[in-house]
Automatic annotation (TrEMBL):
Chain segments annotated as transmembrane: 74-95
Native species: Phyllotreta striolata
Entry coiled-coil feature ranges: 12-70
Protein name (Swiss-Prot/TrEMBL): Coiled-coil domain-containing protein 167
InterPro entries assigned: CC167 (IPR028194)
UniProt KW keywords: Coiled coil, Membrane, Transmembrane, Transmembrane helix
Length: 104
C-alpha cells in the first residue's frame, strides 16, 4: 500500500467512511452470530472476527478524534493569522495613511 498524502478533511472523510463500514460489518457479524443454524466452530470464528472488528473500530475512532483535534488546531492557527494580518493592516491605516481627507 502506498503512503499518500491527503488533506486533513480528506483523511477525516476516509476515516469516517471506514468507521461506517466497520460498524456495518460488526452488525452483520452480530446477526450471523445470533443465527441458530451456524455450527459451533463457525460461531467461534465469527466471535474472533467480531473481536477484531471491534478493535479496528476503536482504532478508527481514536484516529478520527486525533484528526479532528488536528483540524481544530489548524483552523485556530489560520484564524489567528487572519486576525494578525487584519490587526497589522489597521495599525498601518491608523499611522501611515494620509489623513488629509479629514480636512474639510
Amino acid at each position: 500500500m502506498s503512503a499518500k498524502k491527503y488533506s486533513i478533511m480528506k483523511e477525516i472523510q476516509l476515516t469516517s467512511r471506514a468507521i461506517e463500514d466497520t460498524s456495518k460489518r460488526i452488525e452483520a457479524l452480530e446477526d450471523k452470530l445470533n443465527s441458530e443454524s451456524i455450527p459451533e466452530k463457525k460461531k467461534n470464528a465469527i466471535k474472533q472476527e467480531l473481536i477484531e472488528a471491534r478493535k479496528l473500530l476503536e482504532t478508527h475512532e481514536a484516529q478520527l478524534d486525533h484528526l479532528e483535534i488536528h483540524n481544530k488546531s489548524t483552523f485556530m492557527l489560520c484564524v489567528g493569522l487572519v486576525f494578525l494580518v487584519f490587526l497589522f493592516y489597521m495599525i498601518y491605516i491608523l499611522f501611515a495613511n494620509d489623513t488629509s481627507f479629514m480636512d474639510y
